[in-house]
Amino acid sequence: MTDLIEPDALLFNPFVPGFFEDPYPQYKMLRDNDPVQNHPLGFWFVSRFDDVSTLLKAGLSVEVANLAPGPFNQQIEYFGTEGNAGALNLSMLDRDPPDHTRLRSLVTKVFTRRAVAALEPRITALVDGALDEMAEKGGCDLVEELAFPLPFEVISEMLGMPPTDHARIRQLSGTLVRSLEIVADEEAARAIMDADIELASIARELIEWKRKNPGDDLLTALITAEHEGQVLNSDELVAQVVLLYVAGHETTVNLIANGVNALLRNPDQLALLRAKPELAANAVEEFLRYDSPVQQTRRITTEPYVLRDKEIPAGTFVLACLGSANRDERFFGPDAGELRVDRPDARAQVSFGAGPHHCLGAALARLEGQVAISRLVQRFPDLGFAGQLEWNGRINLRGPAKFPVTVHAT
């Protein structure tokens, strides 16, 4: 597996102390000094807004089969030969057209703006129920009480899932998403593959349950497509279920928790949002920009690709750093490193990607984040930290693991 990166001030290195707490100084260093970096581990790292935006829209591949032989392939090949391909390689996230187009078309109608808007009463009810619990306790772990259960319950209801072991699925999905980043040792890689296998097994059990208990839900629609249209094979069906389950909550957990953390650390912006609740939608865009729930996404070149006078060879793994692009002063201005809930161009952020792989659940995540954060800060004028925030230790899906807050004055 990949060894830890040797210290070098000008290299992307997520293993240096303090990176998980605040990666943005390192991103700025890369933007200013080496914005298109040929990394010694065998991938390229792109960090400026214009370059990231261009890369995402360029129609490059996401399929690891297009990787040329090289040092970075060690990790990819390890997963591919030893792991279970169902959740890692067959989801729409990991496929190029025409497979990507076919898979995405099956679920697109469930995530249209109109379909998502119809969920607002249910989302509001779930948020208010969580806030009632918080008020009764006087404080809580924000992740445990609101940021995690809200999106998890919503995606579970959309899929039509029976009651499941939420804690176990959360643990497994948190492990699986580490496959989206550099893995430093074989033990971590084995844990990812074990989580992949177990989640796929859970998905198969849920699919079999749903075959016997069909309903007006997304999972029934996917199963029907498999049977009647022969659009999905069994492994593809499992892969889409795992993807929707995991992606349907992991990123929104970070959006809600990162957004509240940003407000508490910027009390002037918290006061502005309370004074002008009509800023709630724009504030969510600013939370997405200021501390992106997904820090990086990948593309793979299928032919030589030129960025900033550097030629990236065909078959190269390229990391587009969304978190860095969203803080680029060249695009967002000299205050790009500051939180401004009224920022006029906040929606230009690239946290949901761009091009054919633009996040399918973007409208749902926006709505969940807007309802949760706006109702939280309006209801609790004494909202504040109640202890030390702990980060989840992830390079890519970066967010708090524990976030103790108080909702009563002390």
Biggest beta sheet attributes: 4 strands, mixed
* Overall geometric form: globular
- Rounded to the nearest angstrom, the radius of gyration is 21 Å
Number of helices: 18
Describe what you observe in this structure.
Helices cover about 50% and strands about 10% of the residues. It is α+β, with helices and mostly antiparallel strands. It has a four-stranded mixed β-sheet with strand order 1-2-7-4, sandwiched between helices. Helix 10 (about 165-175) crosses helix 11 (about 185-210), helix 13 (about 235-265) packs across helix 15 (about 280-290) and helix 15 (about 280-290) crosses helix 18 (about 360-380). It is globular. Mean pLDDT is about 90; it is low at about 80-85.
Short synopsis of the structure:
The chain contains 18 helices and 11 strands.
What's the layout of helices and strands?
Blueprint: H1 24-33, E1 36-38, E2 44-46, H2 49-56, H3 73-82, H4 85-89, H5 99-107, H6 113-117, H7 120-137, E3 139-141, H8 142-147, H9 149-159, H10 166-176, H11 186-212, H12 218-228, H13 234-264, H14 267-275, H15 280-290, E4 296-300, E5 305-307, E6 310-312, E7 317-321, H16 322-325, H17 329-332, H18 362-379, E8 384-385, E9 390-391, E10 400-402, E11 404-406
Parallel strand pairs: 2-7
Antiparallel strand pairs: 1-2, 3-11, 4-7, 5-6, 8-11, 9-10
Helix pairs in contact: 7-18, 9-13, 10-11, 11-13, 13-15, 13-18, 15-18
